[in-house]
Amino acid sequence: MTFPKRLEDNPAFLNYKSEHGRILYGEDIFVGYRYYDKAKISPLFPFGHGLSYTTFSLASLEVKFGNGELDVSVKLTNTGETDGAEVVQVYVVSCELPVIQTVKELKGYRKVFLKAKESTSVNVKINGKYASSYWNERKDSWHQVPGDYQVLVGNSSQGTFLVGSFTIEKEAFWNGL
């Protein structure tokens, strides 16, 4: 959940009430953190923001793409004096798409519990077509677009990210799960 600084910063601010019993959802794909990214608005608390009694650091990002799977690994360290939990979040920035697009999209995450000063390798596997497709209304199908994709790994939707990339070589269309 993203908390705005002001009510007017909310993506649904202009669409919050019904007109004759009908509610229009004008946000389209720009719900939550996607809106704040696109509008370049700094929220009070970004999506994924957590309060903890300890601190964490991320390092050593590795991004691999093969056999239709995106494999993201990172070293997570509890740098504080207290045991705690952190959520490692993996966002994907699409290549140039033929439709309006978000700045980035959350594609995977992993919650990890660590003792004070402990480190571990965190691995997040994401189906490649889920990481690199958008809904193509004209084709009534998911559309995997060839190109270079950026991978951002952090602990909330805003802040400092480790950056990697992968490439989709062939265009594909698909339906179903």
CATH-assigned fold name of the largest domain: Immunoglobulin-like
- CATH A-level architecture of the largest domain: Sandwich
Percentage of β-strand residues: 35-45%
| Overall pLDDT | 90
How would the blueprint of this fold be written?
Elements: H1 33-39, E1 56-66, E2 69-78, E3 84-93, E4 105-114, E5 119-127, H2 128-131, E6 133-136, E7 141-144, E8 147-154, E9 162-168, E10 172-174
What descriptors fit this protein?
Immunoglobulin-like, 43% strand, 2 domains, 177 residues, three-stranded antiparallel sheet, 10 strands, mainly beta
Description of the structure:
The chain is mainly beta. The chain folds into two domains: 7-39, no CATH class; 56-174, Immunoglobulin-like, CATH 2.60.40. Helices cover 6% and strands 43% of the residues. The chain has two helices and ten strands; from the N terminus they run H-E-E-E-E-E-H-E-E-E-E-E. The strands form three sheets. A four-stranded antiparallel β-sheet has the order 4-3-8-9, with no helix packed on it. A three-stranded antiparallel β-sheet has the order 1-2-5. Strands 6-7-10 form a three-stranded antiparallel β-sheet. The longest helix has 7 residues, at 33-39. It is flat and about 55 Å long. The relative contact order is 0.19.
